[in-house]
Amino acid sequence: MGTAGATNEVATLKEAVSAAERNAAAERSEREKQEARVAEVRQELQALMEKQESLEHDSKTRESELASALESAKSAKAEARRALQEVEDVKKIAAGKAFFMQSKHVNVNYLALTRIRSSPGAFVDLPRSVSDAAVFYRGEEGSSTEKVIWSQYAKAGHTVPPSDQLKQLVELHKVAEEAMKGLIVRLWPGEAMLGSYFGLVRRLVDACPWVEVIKRSACIEGACRALARAKVHWGRLDAERLLTDLPPVGKEYRTPEMYYKTVLKGARNIADECPRDVIIE
């Protein structure tokens, strides 16, 4: 009886151990499933977060692109408006009407200047200049590019379109530029030629006082040469006293103007001897 009871107790214990092992295995399996699910959920959350970040980035990119597109559209619209205004101004210029030199959105400080510089007759002289140019080049011998250019406008029996008027103005500017360059080379032979049209204009503004300097220098140079020639023959001649002293007694009536004709030939010879390459102050 004691042995049978012990056997039953052992069997009961074994059954309990087996049940505990089965429960532990079930719990372990369930735990592994839960851990796998947690890892799966974590991956899903990570994917959702990355997707959200990507959507936010795409949204910001689209917003930036949209803002850039709107800005480009505004710039293009403003440029088109300016181009249209320029076309309208050209038409007004050609028609002899008032026009704005600056934009209509110009700062208020420049409005007075705009009104002053707006010209109701900007191209009034152009037809006369074109006609004069055509006549001038037609009278030249041979054939030239200028003759061909101006001859096509010589007998225009209709209103010249603005595009052709601008071409005429450009050709006139070319002629004026060459004339200014030629004059500047003669007046300032030792200086480099200016590189802009405005520079030529500014230099030409300085031409009038410079011509006075050249005239004075040439006068001094000629007189210097003439007096030096006189001293070759009369070494004791005092040039300063010759100019400041009065005529001899009894000959006060004599004036330099009385002898201009008699000394003109010699003066011309003196002019030929003067190099005129140095400005004498």
Short description:
With 281 residues, the protein is mainly α. It is built from 9 helices and no strands.
Describe the model.
The protein has 281 residues and is mainly alpha-helical. Among the domains are: 125-190, no CATH class; 207-273, no CATH class. The chain has helices at 2-94, 111-117, 126-138, 145-154, 162-187, 197-205, 207-233, 239-244, 260-273. Helix 3 crosses helix 4 and helix 5 (162-187) packs across helix 6 (197-205). Residues 50-65 have a biased composition (Basic and acidic residues). Residues 48-70 are annotated as: Disordered.
SSE map:
Blueprint: H1 2-94, H2 111-117, H3 126-138, H4 145-154, H5 162-187, H6 197-205, H7 207-233, H8 239-244, H9 260-273
Helix pairs in contact: 3-4, 5-6
